[in-house]
Amino acid sequence: MDHIPVIDFGSFESDPKAVAAAVRSACESIGFLYLTNFGIPQSEVERAFSLSAEFFDQPLEEKRKEEISSNNLGYVGMRKEILDPGVQKYGDTKECFNFGKLVDGKPVQVLPSVIAENQEFMGKFSMDCHKLCGKILQAFAVAMEINDEDGGIHYFEDRHKYTGQCGSVLRFLKYPKGDNADPTETVRAGSHSDYGSITLLFQNGIPGLEVQASRTNWISAPIIPGAVLVNIGDQMEYWTGGRFKSTKHRVVFLPEHAKYDRYSIAYFCQANNEVLLNAIPSPLTTGEKVNVDKATMTAGEYLQERLNRTYEFVAAA
Ligand SMILES: O=C(O)CCC(=O)C(=O)O
Ligand SMILES: [Fe+2]
């Protein structure tokens, strides 16, 4: 498939089979899909983008007050993350802020003041993202024909409890204009696959995301107003025996975009830490990609391993 399909998610409740069939076709080919009518009001997404701009507009000293640590939460500065360590000369040209969740109305991390003033909103937005992921996971279970006695439509959702221990994160991203370390280097975020189950991505204003449709062919993931982009992560690829594709993607700036800041917001949905990466009870798992080494690994362990690799050069610095 050389394009990313757009699927109307509004009819999932009334016609789950038809929506799941469209979702399955996208997941088995390009591993990316856009959803419209996905249930999160546009006003909420816009508020999140304004808050993100407000946060990143602050002086660096302010942002660095709550820097990321081993919990994967907090501020990540420019070039601190390197998504394609074998290839990139420099760390990614981006800064990020990772938010966890609220437990009993309280954040699980020390929040910078701009975010703390809006913590209730952040908690709601992250929970809404998680709920949407739960619905998408229902569509995946229907698509993978999981029997009722094995958990049926709730098979994946039950392994992604918001209240459980998991590494799910809401992330604000900013790719600042014209700040490439090397002007011939157009890659802002290196080629990578995502680590978790599914990722939601909200884009705003400036495009730049590219998806690897084949080894030699990168296609752009344009901004579709009112749609959210969804992609498969590595763990879903393991569970589905390689049927669902965790496709590589990267962020590049075309010359005409280099003079603008680009903002995006991602929600990385992770399974609960203890969930094993073994094959799911589905008649469709082919087994060819089921990695025997990973079958005894948990979602929490896999996430930690990938995060260690992403931040390896920070540890070495
Ligand atoms: O900012 C984007 O458009 C994509 C970000 C991304 O792929 C990631 O952070 O994993
Ligand atoms: Fe990604």
From TrEMBL:
InterPro entries: DIOX_N, IPNS-like_FE2OG_OXY, IPNS-like_sf, Iron_ascorbate_oxido_reductase, Oxoglu/Fe-dep_dioxygenase_dom
Transmembrane regions: none
Record Gene3D superfamilies: B-lactam Antibiotic, Isopenicillin N Synthase, Chain
Occurrences of domain Fe2OG dioxygenase (ranges): 166-271
PROSITE patterns in the record: FE2OG_OXY
Keywords of the record: Iron, Metal-binding, Oxidoreductase
Domain of life of the organism encoding this protein: Eukaryota
Single GO molecular function: oxidoreductase activity
Pfam families in the record: 2OG-FeII_Oxy, DIOX_N
UniProt record similarity statement: Belongs to the iron/ascorbate-dependent oxidoreductase family.
Designated name of the protein: Fe2OG dioxygenase domain-containing protein
